[in-house]
Design a protein that fits this description.
The protein is mainly alpha-helical. It has helices at 2-6, 11-16, 24-36, 39-63, 65-95, 102-112, 114-135, 139-151, 155-176, 181-190, 195-209, 214-217, 225-237, 240-295. Helix 5 runs parallel beside helix 14.
Length: 296
């Protein structure tokens, strides 16, 4: 950057020469700040925006530490039981001529082939990852994948509200920086990765060119009805920028509530799944013991 600026380029032009470092939203805001003479204010807004994004990401990472540790621990417990504990009992049962029930045979098969199964799962995961990278070039396939993501309970709503909050915040920042709403919406659209929502934003952009209101074009399948109403109030009162800020805060609050609920939901689910697995292992050991008692 220093080299480009010394050469006479503006800060926005210098940032544009580093596309892998600076996002489109960052470059557009810097350019708007230079044109309007409010570069210092724009930098403060950008600092607050990226600070909030960083805090949100760190919060999600911190919240997933406990479930991740619990899941990994559960996996090692299951592997230990199926490879070390269960074979000892199976040998005892076989020595006295007790026929192993189906559930015990299943766990013995899993225990004796755990390494091969892990390799198969790893290979399938790698193939799935490579397939996703390959098919990212196909807009139709990615559209269907993103559509499926939005239909997942809890997760779909969380994606919608998080992206809605991001869009409203970007529109507020860009329009308050002096960028026209059409250009602001175009930039915001470029920051969205979900193809379904991106398609909806393109429809909104096309409608704005036909002098339609922003709130009329926002589909309630993607944006919450309350968010649409807040923006409609802003358009009617002439305070769209202020209402965009309020809509962003409202959607962000909804997204945080969903995140907290999802995190609270994940922990007991992992515990329940672990309990069921260990219960099946215990049952697979206990059932043959009853057969031994019957022999004597």
């Amino acid at each position: 950057l220093n080299l480009h600026i010394r050469r006479g380029d503006s800060l926005a032009e210098a940032c544009r020469n580093q596309p892998y470092v600076f996002s489109e939203i960052f470059i557009c805001m810097i350019e708007a700040g230079e044109l309007s003479g409010n570069l210092s204010d724009i930098l403060k807004i950008l600092s607050a925006y990226y600070s909030d994004m960083s805090k949100q990401n760190e919060k999600i990472k911190s919240a997933m530490i406990y479930p991740s540790i619990l899941g990994v621990t559960s996996l090692f417990v299951v592997i230990f039981l199926t490879t070390k504990v269960l074979p000892v009992y199976v040998n005892i049962f076989s020595s006295v001529g007790v026929q192993l029930p189906k559930i015990t045979q299943i766990f013995m098969f899993l225990g004796s082939n755990i390494v091969n199964l892990c390799i198969i799962v790893f290979v399938l995961f790698v193939l799935l990852f490579l397939g996703i990278i390959k098919y990212q070039e196909s807009a139709k396939i990615m559209y269907q994948i993103d559509k499926l993501k939005l239909s997942i309970p809890f997760m779909g709503q969380l994606i919608k509200k998080s992206i809605s909050s991001q869009i409203a915040r970007l529109l507020y920042i860009l329009t308050s920086s002096g960028i026209p709403i059409l250009k602001a919406l175009e930039v915001s659209c470029n920051t969205v990765k979900n193809q379904v929502i991106k398609m909806e934003l393109k429809k909104v952009h096309k409608g704005l060119k036909q002098w339609k209101n922003l709130s009329e074009l926002m589909s309630e399948k993607i944006f919450s009805p309350m968010m649409v109403k807040i923006i409609a109030i802003g358009e009617e009162s002439g305070a769209l920028e202020e209402m965009l800020d309020k809509a962003a805060s409202f959607s962000l609050n909804e997204a945080k509530i969903l995140e907290d609920r999802l995190i609270l939901f994940v922990e007991p689910v992992i515990i329940i799944v672990l309990t069921l697995i260990i219960s099946f292992i215990v049952i697979s050991v206990v059932i043959p013991m009853f057969d031994i008692y019957n022999l004597f």
